[in-house]
Amino acid sequence: MFDFLKKSSKSNDNKKSDTIKEMIYWEDSSRFQGVFKDFFVVYQPEKKQFSLVSMLKVDGLNVDTLPVSEQEGLNEDFGVFLSQNVLYEPQITSKNVPVEIDDFVEAWGNTVENYRKMPGHNEALLQLKASYYYHYRNLASNMETSKKQHFVINSEPISKETYDSLELSYQVLRDKTRTIRTALIAFLSKYDCQVEICTIGEMKKVLNS
Question: Superkingdom, according to UniProt (predicted)?
């Protein structure tokens, strides 16, 4: 794939030389073909095409410990998020991550207290945050728990094996990833979540698990 990228960096073509520095290769037979800038280059045999892949990490939300009514509301909101972003075709995956519950509860207590001190805070949202804190504090009395780490996988096809196509796909995926991140932050704002763009190392660990 992208044979022109594998030529010596002594090439007189500055564009090719710069691209070599941006691209890291693995085995040609691997599904993970390499890295271009901060995204994965993957081969999708089912589609017989190369694509760039990015990933968003949603942290701070443990759906399993939410009250049933809150889980139902979250599911409804999630359905709205998917319908609004259906053209981007985001894929969702989750992993269980161990949590030291005492540290988790302490962090929630700090979150509630910091929000309480904010001028003009929303009282209903404060009560919601406080209810989560008391719920987690009760859990901490007799157990340790885990949280689900949620990931949103985004991709963009590479139409041709050329530098220009690779760069175009990168720009499209970069904008798509930012748009979906903004939508996720808005959708999850009342759940005190953080949404971050994954590093290459984080993506590789998730995709290989």
Answer: Bacteria
Return the SS3 of 31.
coil
Phi, psi of 98 (to 5 degrees): -60, 145
> Do residues 55 and 203 lie in contact, with contact meaning Cβ atoms separated by under 8 Å?
yes
Backbone angles phi and psi of 199, in degrees to 5: -80, 170
Furthest C-alpha separation in the chain:
67
Kindly report, residue by residue over 114-150, the tens digit of the pLDDT.
Answer: 998 999 889 999 999 899 888 888 877 655 556 667 8
Q: Is residue 30 one of the residues assigned to a domain?
A: yes
Number of C-alpha atoms within 13 angstroms, CB side, residue 62?
Answer: 18
Identify whether 11 is part of a domain. Answer: yes
**Alpha carbon distance 180, 158 (integer Å):** 20
Q: Total domain count for the chain?
A: 1
Residue 14 has pLDDT above 60, yes or no: no
Q: Is residue 53 part of a domain?
A: yes
Beta strands in the chain (DSSP E): 23-25, 32-36, 39-44, 49-59, 91-99, 145-158, 194-197
Q: Domain range for residue 89?
A: 3-60+85-96+150-207
Does any domain span residue 74? Answer: no
